[in-house]
Amino acid sequence: MEEDDANLQSFLRWAAALGISDSSISDCSSSSCLGRTLSVSHFPDAGGRGLAAARGIRKGELILRVPKAALVTSDCLISNDQKLSAALERYPSLSSTQILSVALLNEVNKGRSSLWYHYLKQLPQSYDLLASFGQFEIEALQIDDAIWAAEKAVDKGKMEWEEAAPVMCELNLKPQLMTFYAWLWASATISSRTMHIPWDTAGCLCPVGDFFNYAPPEEGNSIEELLDANTDRLTDAGYDEGVASYCFYAKRNYGKADQVLLSYGTYTNLELLEHYGFLLQENPNDKAFISLEPEMYSLCSWPKESIYISEDGMPSFALLSTVRLWATPMSKRRSIKHIALSGHRISAENEAAVMEWIADKCQALLSSCSTTIDEDILMLLVIDKFQDYTGEAELSPALCDEIRAFLESNHVTCEGLSTKLHVSLKTRRSVYRWKLAVQWRHGYKRILSDCISYCTRMLDNPSC
Ligand SMILES: C[S@@+](CC[C@H](N)C(=O)[O-])C[C@H]1O[C@@H](n2cnc3c(N)ncnc32)[C@H](O)[C@@H]1O
């Protein structure tokens, strides 16, 4: 712990020397880049390490500046390293993200002699993005779309690693930096920590700026609110060519010690898991996608991603209009299509058929899962106390099967679970990912269940 703190202090001094600052005036006297506006703090329930307000902050204030020279980009890593530059030239088909991954691992390979040593020491040692999920954790997601997304993420990681392997061999990286595990670490670092820059689609790593944890974008900023704040820009962070720096602005007012959050974008929980390795218990942008009958897709030309149930259980506009049209007798579809496409109900009878179809679809999806919502809640309690778990009494067969599958996939024997000491770090990571999978499927099922309640209310009281 003391070592971590000493590392953090060295990092903040290093960052100050590069001109990273949370002060609006230039202040060369301070040995740390933080302390006037922000401070590093720990938020166990909202992202772990993050940045807190060191004083009251007003919406729209500039809170952190990271000069271009402090940004970690492929350009800067390559221009400082002839061997890397020459090796990459021989592999022109690598993507911008693969190039940044190779350059990052090459930099880690340098150890203390890397110009970025203090920054690299601050990076997490492992991540929980979908690409790092094992087969058990993938199956624990239960819903086909999510399983497919996770398998695709793992396959993509493997393919990109295999393509980049020859260049890493040429660079003579240490064997542990050439493994698939190391590759996943580098690509997860890039996926979860890079920020947009106009000159490289891989983005840049932004020391200190990447300590901000995430909050979803706030909806409904009124024009007055936007004018009131110092906002001729509507985003909370971006590269500003005028001052050659990455600039971060407060999205709202903060009291002293509040966590200052950044919106990385609008994501469903599955997307947050895929790109950042976490999810939110309350995510206004979460969605449950349901598949339609094949012939429904040809009735309307809505993109597939617009056909969903939103976080509060309401079917989306595109879902409703498609099912309304499909529930209309074929001979009448042409004449009422404009009504369906404009989002209006077609008739009471049609609306009842629509609600029934959507509710049945949600119910079928829920019934196809091996555990119920209540069992998922219980599973989460078991997972939280997993290190103390000693038996399977009083749990349903589905939960016992899942626990057994976890133990088998991690080669843990029941005897080995009786004390905390017997659970290895690797198993603990796996327990954490399992928890993420169960939290995700629970949230998804809750949306489906809320949708069934919504449809039932509509059927019982069509005038709502
Ligand atoms: C850009 S980093 C933020 C700083 C990070 N906590 C750290 O210690 O370096 C993004 C990562 O922080 C974590 N994170 C950010 N916001 C979060 C939130 N609201 N809830 C849980 N984890 C979050 C996730 O692990 C994510 O991949």
From TrEMBL:
Q: Which residues form the SET domain?
A: 36-265
Q: What Pfam families does the annotation carry? A: Rubis-subs-bind
One Gene Ontology biological process: methylation
CDD domains annotated for this entry? SET_LSMT
Citing just one GO molecular function, the answer is: protein-lysine N-methyltransferase activity
Please provide the record's keywords in A-Z order: Methyltransferase, S-adenosyl-L-methionine, Transferase
- The name on file for this protein is Protein SET DOMAIN GROUP 40
Q: Which organism is it from?
A: Sesamum alatum
Taxonomy, top ranks, is: Eukaryota, Viridiplantae, Streptophyta, Embryophyta, Tracheophyta
